[in-house]
């Protein structure tokens, strides 16, 4: 039978409730089991008849080592180990060290990469916009009734170690943080101190030609990534009945270790951000199903 770690069997929250109760209890039981009896419960009545050999038993002061003492001592050590495991600080995500750049997605979809070259991705599906060691951004491309089967950006999802286990998903008409709806009104705001700051309003720049004079619905967000600027994303939502829903996206961020995706590898060489070269590196059929959980757009179609 496979032995599972206690944290997996009980769950982290259950262990956090257990530790404060376990430590005092084991300490009390250990003290009770190993307590030294100051007054013996017998009386000396003199030497008996016959010969005898005198034995001397040496034990630690105040306690005879009993099996229960050893067991309770081990339980106390276990409690201390659990307390350390549950309360030790998480490893800090290293700050990005690359330069700051901008990648823009518009239309069906056209992409201006961090290194400044334009690439066109027309195929529907889910693809890596940014894939690095710490930052994961996926995009969902689907057609509208006026694109003749060509994909447009319908939603993005953000995750990765820099978000400390959280996931953000933005669609044209909704947004979620860890699966819970946010920015449900217009205008509206959402903040998690030290992690994310979001605003939804009608203020911002256009990211696509031909949108002049139309009503603006723009999501602005800043994600803490260890830099002074943070990782910033602007999402312009378009909900014209004659066009169908889609979005334009602008991502401003530092270069990351191991970075690639439709926004390019951000290595100051525009030529290797060509669509064919990017697809050869990150795949041409979409996100590997084994990586969908990293920052998924698939929670809802």
Instruction: Give start-end ranges of low-pLDDT stretches.
Output: 1-15
- How many strands appear in the DSSP assignment? 14
Number of helices: 4
Question: Spatial order of the strands in the main sheet?
Answer: 3-2-1-14-13-12-11-10
Reconstruct the topology from this structure.
Elements: H1 6-10, H2 12-33, H3 67-87, E1 100-106, E2 110-112, E3 118-120, E4 125-131, E5 136-142, E6 152-159, E7 168-171, E8 175-177, E9 180-181, E10 188-192, E11 196-201, E12 218-223, E13 231-238, E14 246-254, H4 275-282
If you had to describe this structure to a student in words, what would you say it looks like?
With 301 residues, the chain is α+β, with helices and mostly antiparallel strands. The protein folds into 2 domains: 6-37 and 55-87; 100-294, no CATH class. The protein has helices at 6-10, 12-33, 67-87, 275-282; strands spanning 100-106, 110-112, 118-120, 125-131, 136-142, 152-159, 168-171, 175-177, 180-181, 188-192, 196-201, 218-223, 231-238, 246-254. Strands 3-2-1-14-13-12-11-10 form an 8-stranded antiparallel β-sheet, with no helix packed on it. Strand 7 (168-171) and strand 8 form a beta hairpin. Helix 2 (12-33) runs antiparallel to helix 3. The longest helix is centred in the N-terminal third of the chain and has 22 residues, at 12-33. The protein starts with 5 loop residues before the first helix and ends in a 19-residue tail after the last helix. The model is unreliable at 1-15 (pLDDT under 50).
């Amino acid at each position: 039978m496979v032995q599972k770690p206690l944290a997996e069997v009980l769950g982290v929250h259950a262990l956090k409730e257990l530790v404060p109760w376990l430590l005092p209890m084991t300490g009390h039981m250990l003290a009770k089991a190993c307590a030294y009896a100051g007054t013996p419960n017998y009386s000396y009545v003199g030497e008996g008849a016959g010969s005898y050999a005198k034995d001397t038993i040496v034990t630690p002061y105040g306690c005879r080592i009993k099996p229960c003492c050893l067991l309770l001592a081990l339980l106390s050590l276990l409690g201390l180990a659990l307390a350390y495991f549950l309360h030790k600080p998480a490893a800090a995500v290293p700050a990005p060290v690359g330069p700051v750049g901008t990648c823009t997605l518009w239309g069906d979809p056209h992409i201006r990469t961090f290194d400044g070259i334009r690439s066109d991705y027309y195929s529907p599906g889910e693809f890596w916009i940014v894939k690095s060691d710490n930052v994961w951004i996926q995009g969902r491309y689907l057609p509208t009734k006026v694109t003749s089967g060509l994909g447009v950006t319908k939603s993005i999802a953000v995750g990765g170690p820099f978000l400390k286990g959280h996931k953000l998903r933005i669609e044209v008409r909704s947004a979620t943080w860890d699966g819970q709806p946010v920015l449900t009104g217009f205008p509206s705001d959402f903040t998690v101190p030290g992690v994310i700051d979001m605003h939804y309003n009608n203020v911002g720049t256009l990211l696509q030609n031909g949108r002049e004079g139309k009503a603006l619905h723009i999501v602005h967000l800043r994600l803490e990534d260890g830099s002074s600027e943070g990782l910033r994303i602007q999402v312009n939502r378009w909900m014209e009945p004659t066009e169908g829903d889609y979005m334009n996206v602008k991502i401003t961020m530092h270069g990351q270790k191991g970075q690639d995706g439709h926004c390019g590898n951000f290595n100051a060489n525009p030529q290797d951000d060509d669509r064919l070269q990017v697809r050869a590196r990150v795949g041409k059929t979409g996100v590997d199903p084994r990586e969908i959980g990293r920052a998924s757009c698939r929670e809802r179609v």
